[in-house]
């Protein structure tokens, strides 16, 4: 039957032109979901595009399923194949019939099965006197099956001399750099680099595939614009409304960064950021330039990312994978990433990459927003879209879905009229009322494909024509993993922010950047205690408030906790300055306050720094410039960023007469005098403390009596850990403060937090238990790990 069909289809070709050879396509995993949804249709499209151009084809659907079942499956799928809208039904039916006859199912399990397949192909070629052009093996199978299949193809199913072999591979291509490298090495032992076509189906999306040709065809207009002087930011976005339900076993292992950002969005990023090769149709040049773009990416840090997880995900994982109720997944289903490209073209331009499941809409786009340097003298009502330099200027490659509902290329009319190939892109008809990226559609030159094509159909054609630039080479794959793996490692234990999903997420997932850091814009919302009802709203998420040792306790995830504490400090400062004209703040050292200082330094523009006095709660007896010095921390994380008058900064005098903390130098007494001279009643407006795992606070340690009681406001003490010598405010002085805030963060504090919650006033054993302002207020700030473990 296959032979007869091949002959029939060939008659036309032979009549039309010289025969180029025969191509066998073997679809592995032919009964799977991807094959059913996209691949068979892609193969049919390939046939439609190529029939009559000199090649003959045969299509072999293969899987592990029995021949009978497999053939039944395929028959059904083939019946549902569709033709382009502009093809007359009779022609469509005719070609579909030919395609059906050229397609057969066969079970491929053992090496012998592959040998038999090869023999059958050869026999048919010989029988018909056809020359073999090549074989395509499309791997639509899970990665664990790759090696076995690859070995069989290599040993038993390669085409004869002069014909090509192309193996097409579907992601995932590893889980991190190491595993990707191992997989690549393994595949490399069976196939040559030029034989491998790793698919990233986003490269087949029409708007994505248009990025380089667009840059090329509009070189003249873009030459001066496509750089840091003109581009304000680039957004590469893929939002989905679907969630990960039904595939949590895959998703738990991968999460949104591996699933979508490492591949789809990174590919798009490189197409935007890379230098444009002189000849964009040279695969080799494109791939080389892409690789250079990877090399220019600045390494990511933990602070480059914000993570989220839709609320129902945890329950889906527990249900689908039979996990106990106590199981909590940390897998992100949403990520926003800030990327910088360190080269002359892009230095300083933020590239936002963002993707999420269970979002409010399905849409994908790349948006290049240009800076606006103009001032327009006319009233806004008179601004004309193609003339006003004050309207937003942007180029958008609209990948699909969303308000527009189809792929498109949009260029603001005040930029330039773009040139697109008229045989494949047409101007979009006006849609009154439709707004995109803040502007009516009429503000853009807007183009959409003449014929919308599925990404897999586009890629099938590129495989057939050997267009390697639409695929991922081993070098590019590894470069991408080199970029992502350190971030993935550093985020492995991060707790993603929960979001309700859909429109209910409100502004919970909005994020913004400051310098190289990305953060959620809304800091005060918290999720530990979702409100009642099945569909919680953002307003249900609160910072947890309770009591601890009879005093108010505020608990939240670290980020929110720090933001809350910083807000409270600013509010206290503003009140103090309003009432007394100045604000006296005493700060502890160590690592816990660092994010707080950074927060105050970068986000509190209304803070009355000019009227703030900064004091130290304690100090290590080292020179002030020593990295161990608490003052050094204050300097690095706060003072160098804000404008506190120098005479308002009060380091502890630990270094006098060229020695450190000598009793005779009376440094502690000097500090006490300074406090008493400047701080009314020696009563600080706010003292920030921490709590050590042994219950120490400031530099007041268990079993060391100095500073726990008595009249000395400032004391020299001894720490069990290095550097041993310390200077510290005493408990009596701390307790004179108007307000004391104790910041406790991290799992390591869990035990002491529990213990201290139960003990009474025993400062000799646990100095922290002696903190109780005589007429001021004490507030505990604990993150969930410290408070709940
Ligand atoms: C796949 C991801 O690669 O891309 C899926 O594994 C995601 O999680 C899909 O849903 C999105 O593709 P598209 O073509 O629907 O945008």
Keywords:
single chain, 789 residues, alpha/beta, 33 strands, binds 6-O-phosphono-beta-D-glucopyranose
Structural overview:
The chain is of the alpha/beta class. It is built from 22 helices and 33 strands. The strands form seven sheets. Strands 14-17-13-12-11-7-10-9-8-18 form a ten-stranded mixed sheet. An eight-stranded mixed sheet has the order 21-22-33-32-29-23-24-26. Helix 7 packs antiparallel against helix 15 and helix 12 (283-296) packs parallel to helix 15. The protein is elongated, with a radius of gyration of 33 Å. The protein starts with a helix and ends with a helix. The model is unreliable at 10-18 and 524-542 (pLDDT under 50). 6-O-phosphono-beta-D-glucopyranose (BG6) is lined by residues 240, 259-260, 364.
Bulk shape: elongated
> In what range is the share of β-strand residues?
15-25%
SS elements, strand count: 33
Quaternary organisation: single chain
Task: Give a quick account of the main beta sheet: strands, pairing sense, barrel closure.
Answer: 10 strands, mixed
Radius of gyration: 33 Å
Structural class: alpha/beta
Distance between the termini: 68 Å
Q: Are any ligands bound, and if so which? A: 6-O-phosphono-beta-D-glucopyranose
Low-confidence stretches: 10-18, 524-542
Helix content: 25-40%
- Arithmetic mean pLDDT: 92
Placed side by side, the strands forming the largest sheet appear as 14-17-13-12-11-7-10-9-8-18
| Total count of helical runs of at least 4 residues | 22
């Amino acid at each position: 039957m296959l032979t007869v069909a091949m002959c029939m289809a060939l008659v036309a070709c032979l009549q039309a032109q010289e025969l180029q050879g025969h191509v066998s396509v073997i679809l592995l995993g032919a009964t799977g979901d991807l094959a059913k949804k996209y691949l068979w249709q892609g193969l049919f499209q390939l046939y439609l595009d190529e029939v009559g151009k000199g090649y003959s084809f045969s299509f072999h659907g293969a899987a592990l399923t029995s021949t009978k079942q497999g053939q039944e499956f395929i028959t059904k799928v083939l019946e549902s194949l569709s033709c382009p809208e502009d093809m007359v039904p009779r022609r469509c039916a005719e070609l579909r019939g030919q395609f059906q006859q050229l397609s057969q199912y066969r079970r491929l399990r053992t090496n012998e099965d592959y040998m038999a397949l090869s023999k059958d192909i050869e026999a048919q070629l010989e029988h018909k006197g056809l020359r073999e052009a090549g074989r395509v093996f499309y791997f639509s199978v899970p990665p664990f099956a790759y090696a076995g299949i690859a070995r069989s193809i290599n040993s038993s199913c390669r085409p004869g001399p002069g014909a090509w072999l192309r193996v097409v591979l579907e992601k995932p291509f590893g889980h991190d750099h190491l595993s990707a490298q191992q997989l690549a090495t393994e595949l490399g032992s069976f196939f040559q680099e030029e034989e491998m076509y790793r698919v990233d189906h986003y490269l087949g999306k029409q708007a994505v595939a248009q990025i380089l040709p667009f840059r090329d065809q509009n070189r003249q207009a873009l030459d001066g614009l496509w750089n840091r002087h003109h581009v304000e930011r680039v957004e590469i976005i893929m939002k989905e409304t679907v969630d990960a339900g039904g595939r949590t076993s895959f998703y738990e292992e991968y999460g949104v960064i591996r699933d979508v950002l490492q591949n789809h969005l990174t590919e798009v990023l490189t197409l935007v950021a890379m230098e444009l090769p002189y000849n964009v149709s040279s695969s080799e040049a494109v791939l080389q330039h892409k690789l250079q773009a990877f090399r220019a990416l600045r390494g990511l840090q933990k602070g480059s990312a914000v993570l989220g997880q839709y609320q129902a995900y945890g329950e889906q994982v527990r249900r689908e994978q039979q996990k106990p109720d106590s199981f909590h997944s940390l897998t992100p289903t949403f990520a926003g990433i800030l990327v910088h490209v360190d080269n002359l073209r892009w230095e300083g331009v933020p590239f936002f990459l963002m993707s999420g499941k269970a979002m409010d809409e399905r849409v994908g786009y790349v948006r290049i927003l240009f800076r606006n340097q103009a001032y327009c003298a006319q009233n806004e009502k008179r601004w004309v879209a193609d003339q006003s330099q004050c309207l937003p200027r942007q180029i958008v490659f609209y990948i699909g879905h969303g308000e527009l509902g189809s792929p498109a290329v949009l260029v603001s009319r005040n930029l330039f009229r773009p040139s697109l190939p008229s045989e494949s892109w047409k101007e979009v008809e006006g849609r009154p009322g439709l707004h995109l990226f803040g502007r009516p559609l009429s503000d853009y030159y807007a183009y959409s494909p003449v014929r919308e094509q599925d990404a897999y159909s586009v890629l099938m054609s590129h495989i057939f024509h050997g267009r390697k630039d639409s695929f991922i080479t081993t070098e590019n794959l590894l470069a991408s993993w080199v970029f992502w793996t350190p971030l993935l490692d550093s985020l492995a234990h991060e707790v993603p922010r929960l979001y309700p999903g859909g429109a209910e997420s409100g502004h919970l997932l909005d994020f913004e950047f400051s310098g190289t850091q990305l953060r959620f814009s809304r800091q005060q919302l918290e999720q530990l205690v979702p409100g009642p009802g099945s569909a919680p709203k953002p307003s249900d998420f609160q910072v947890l408030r309770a009591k601890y040792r009879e005093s108010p306790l505020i608990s939240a995830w670290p980020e929110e906790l720090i933001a809350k504490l910083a807000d409270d400090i600013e509010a206290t400062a503003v009140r103090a300055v309003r009432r007394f004209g100045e604000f006296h703040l005493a700060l502890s050292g160590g690592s816990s306050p660092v994010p707080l200082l950074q927060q105050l330094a970068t986000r509190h523009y209304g803070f009355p720094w000019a009227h703030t006095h900064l004091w130290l709660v304690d100090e290590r007896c080292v020179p002030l410039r020593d990295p161990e010095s608490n003052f050094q921390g204050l300097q690095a994380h706060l003072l160098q960023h804000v404008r506190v008058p120098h005479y308002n900064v009060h380091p502890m005098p630990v270094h006098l007469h060229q020695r450190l903390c000598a009793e005779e130098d009376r440094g502690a007494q000097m500090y006490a005098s300074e406090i008493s001279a400047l701080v009314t009643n020696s009563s600080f407006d706010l003292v920030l403390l921490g709590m050590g795992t042994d219950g120490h606070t400031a530099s007041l340690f268990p079993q060391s009596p100095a500073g726990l009681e008595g009249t000395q406001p400032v004391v020299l003490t001894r720490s069990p850990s290095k550097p041993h010598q310390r200077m510290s405010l005493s408990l009596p002085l701390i307790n004179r403060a108007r307000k004391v805030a104790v910041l406790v963060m991290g799992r390591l504090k869990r035990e002491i937090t529990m213990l201290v919650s139960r003990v009474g006033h025993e400062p000799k054993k646990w100095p922290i238990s002696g903190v109780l302002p005589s007429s001021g207020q004490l507030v505990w700030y604990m993150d969930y790990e410290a408070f709940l473990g």
